[in-house]
Specification:
The chain has 610 residues and is mainly β.
């Protein structure tokens, strides 16, 4: 009987996990992507829409669910992929949605089925990852709730979901041409900041509070429903979880809710130590959850504001919408002005905010600590350069370009002539002065492909530097596909192992998938190569990636499983594409049936021991 009890104790957790797997659902979506006329900021332009809507539909699932998206390209003249930002694609690296890296772009008129598991609860989003399609409006939200039987380390009564973006009146094709032109034509600052795809270019919700006599109140202008603010109605004396995701192409955002303190509880799908803030610095690619309590004066409404920061003015007016305290009319303008923005160059405030984000420590939800030592360190020098007179961004003096054949196929099948096999530098000369423009601004093109063995610990130091102009260094948010990483620390100047290596946080560093580097500074991250695949690591500012600011990490390629049909054979339809063989566990129905069979088998084993 003692042996039977031991076996029972051993098997019960496994049985519980199998029951959770058996309860997982398949969330299926059919999406048509096409250009359409829309008024995101009350001015009509072309946007990329999904099923006739902008932004695209929200994906909502539970941890462990399978998401299937049958994506049809109706753009007319260009390819298409979608990246599922923050979803790690464990065992499905070919569904990461990165053209020329994880798959071929989907041809015009063709369909492709993405088929992957959302393994962890959190706030995420999706966006185009071919050319600059994110700037054209190809994005939407992903919300992953906890699995049945699981609880989060905080409670709330309701939820608000906010997607932040920026918007230009110049088309992405014009922007792309300008970025590649000689002389160089920068895209400029956005015309509008959008909240849930809605902004107001030709009027302001808060016109009466602005120091601008020419400002027109939106109440005096007939707005299209496509740009009317997405007002968030709430009940009094309740706690709300506000999910915030930034899919901006350029803008860093200072986010606030008038008269309401916010408690940060989640960053990039990972729980963090609760910390009270009155505003958030949100960089492109970041996602957060905050808790607010609706305990303010119930007779008025309150502003939700999103100001662009971290770039030199002039900057666009803030994105605004209203937190509507029911039963007040939604049309009631708040009595107080919108929250104020910090200075555009308040980088000290940005660093202070970044250092407040620490991993949660609790009995039920402790975030794992990083390994105490690294096996390999890569230092990436982030510079602005010239190639044949064209302005580019480069990493260790190499500007990223991608091959025609997706790297995951070339590496998996040994097609050595299909990409640039030159090993990129893992550091930069110690004599390089990051505070000055480069002495030799000339750079070269390359695939920037780093090869990593399986299950080793990698440190990456992202080192920011001066651009081609004197006394200028910019903010860059860097995003890693396929992984979360520990943010070990931030610093000013050039990273020094002797000095800075001793102050890295190995006790409670947060797990993130996106991290910022500040002007003339460095950021240190650590991750373990436990997810075989080919993963981009790049600046999440759309024009910067387009200009070459990125690298690629090829991780344990020999352990990548069989790549499904349709991933590498461009132009196949859904019937022969990602759906067939798209999951290593077989068709979703078969997978669930297998879970039940295992469940029955385990009870049989227990019974035989008893």
């Amino acid at each position: 009987m003692g042996k039977a009890m031991m076996m029972l104790c051993f098997l019960l957790p496994l049985i519980f996990q199998i029951c959770l797997m058996a309860s997982a659902e398949v969330k299926h979506y059919d999406w048509d992507v096409e250009y359409m006329y829309w008024k995101p900021d009350c001015v009509e332009h072309l946007v990329m829409g999904i099923n006739g809507k902008f932004p695209g539909p929200t994906i909502r699932a539970k941890a462990g669910d399978t998401v299937q998206v049958n994506l049809t390209n109706k753009l007319g003249t260009e390819g298409l992929v979608i990246h599922w930002h923050g979803i790690r694609q464990i065992n499905t690296p070919w569904f990461d949605g990165t053209a020329s890296i994880s798959q071929c772009a989907i041809d015009v008129g063709e369909s492709f089925v993405y088929n992957f598991t959302v393994d962890r609860a959190g706030t995420y989003f999706y966006h185009g990852h071919f050319g600059m399609q994110r700037s054209a409006g190809l994005y939407g939200s992903i919300v992953v709730d906890v699995a049945d039987g699981e609880k989060e380390p905080f409670a709330y009564d309701g939820e608000i979901n906010l997607l932040l973006s920026d918007w230009w009146h110049e088309s992405v094709h014009e922007q792309e041409v300008g970025l590649s032109s000689k002389p160089f034509r920068w895209i400029g600052e956005p015309q509008s900041i959008l909240i849930n795809g809605k902004g107001q270019y030709n009027c302001s919700l808060g016109a009466k509070f602005l120091n601008d006599s020419a400002a027109t109140s939106c109440s005096d202008t007939e707005m299209s429903p496509q740009c009317q603010p997405d007002i968030q109605s709430v009940d009094q004396n309740k706690t709300y979880r506000v999910r915030i995701a930034s899919t901006t192409s350029l803008a860093s955002i200072s986010f606030a809710i008038g008269n309401h303190n916010m408690t940060l509880v989640e960053a990039d799908g990972n729980y963090i130590q609760p910390v009270s803030v009155d505003s958030l610095n949100i960089y492109s690619g970041d996602t957060y959850s905050v808790l607010i309590t609706t305990n303010q004066d119930p007779s008025t409404n309150y502003w939700i504001s999103a100001y662009q920061i971290a770039r030199k003015p002039p900057l666009p007016p803030p994105g605004l919408t209203i937190l509507n305290y029911k039963p007040n009319p939604v049309s009631d303008t708040p009595l107080s002005p919108p929250p104020t923005s910090p200075g555009w160059n308040d980088f000290a405030g940005g660093k202070s905010f970044a250092n407040k984000i620490l991993a949660l420590k609790s009995d039920q939800h402790t975030i794992p600590k990083p390994p105490t030592k690294f096996d390999r360190r890569v230092v990436l020098l982030n510079t602005q350069n010239r190639i044949n007179g064209h302005i580019k961004w480069a990493i260790n003096n190499v500007s990223l370009v991608l091959p025609t054949t997706p790297l995951i196929g070339s590496l998996k099948f040994g097609l050595k002539n299909a990409f640039d096999g030159k090993r990129p530098a893992e550091d930069f000369p110690s004599t390089y002065d990051i505070m000055q423009p480069p002495v030799n601004p000339n750079s070269t093109y390359g695939n920037n492909l780093y090869n990593f063995d399986y299950n080793i610990t990698i440190d990456v130091i992202i080192q920011n530097a001066n651009v081609l102009s004197a006394n200028v260094s910019e903010v860059h948010p860097w995003h890693l596909h396929g992984h979360d990483f520990w943010v070990l620390g931030y610093g000013d100047g050039k990273f020094s192992e002797e000095n800075d290596g001793k102050i890295l946080n190995l006790d409670d560093p947060p797990l993130r998938n996106t991290v910022v580097i500040f002007p003339h500074g460095w950021t240190a991250i650590r991750f373990v190569t436990d997810n075989p695949g080919v993963w981009p690591f790049h600046c999440h500012i759309e024009p910067h990636l387009h200009m070459g600011m990125g690298v690629v990490f090829a991780e344990a390629v020999d352990k990548i499983k069989t790549i499904p049909d349709g991933v590498l054979t461009c132009g196949l339809t859904a019937k022969n594409g990602g759906l067939v063989g798209g999951s290593s566990s077989g068709p979703p129905g078969a997978a669930v049936s297998t879970h039940y069979l295992l469940y029955i088998y385990l009870f049989y084993v227990i019974y035989s021991f008893i």
